[in-house]
Amino acid sequence: MGMKVADIGVRITNYFVDFDRIVDEHELNNWVGRGGRQLMKTRCKLLVKNLFLFVLRVDFERLVAVTHQQAKHNGVALYALVVTRAKSQQHYHTMQYELKSGNALTTKPAVQNK
Fold this sequence. Notes:
Blueprint: H1 8-25, H2 29-32, H3 37-49, H4 54-66, H5 75-101
């Protein structure tokens, strides 16, 4: 997955589009094309196995195995899950970076009514 695109949704969409393009170019539709449940399951498994970041890949393998079984054979559910988790991880890593570099915004505690 290309990390140069700033928008996470666009980056993930490009990943899915590139996957479709590679499948079409190499005529792999009989193996991972859209259609039957088993083909979609193989397709989703390949998409998860080839995620760029190792931490993200391990996270998705666990999520798909335990709590989001529909993403095993449903490309739309897998896409939504990838976008959601990638955004939350990006937010977490940005916060960690800001805290370590001292660029974090200092927040004042909320004023309490007496």
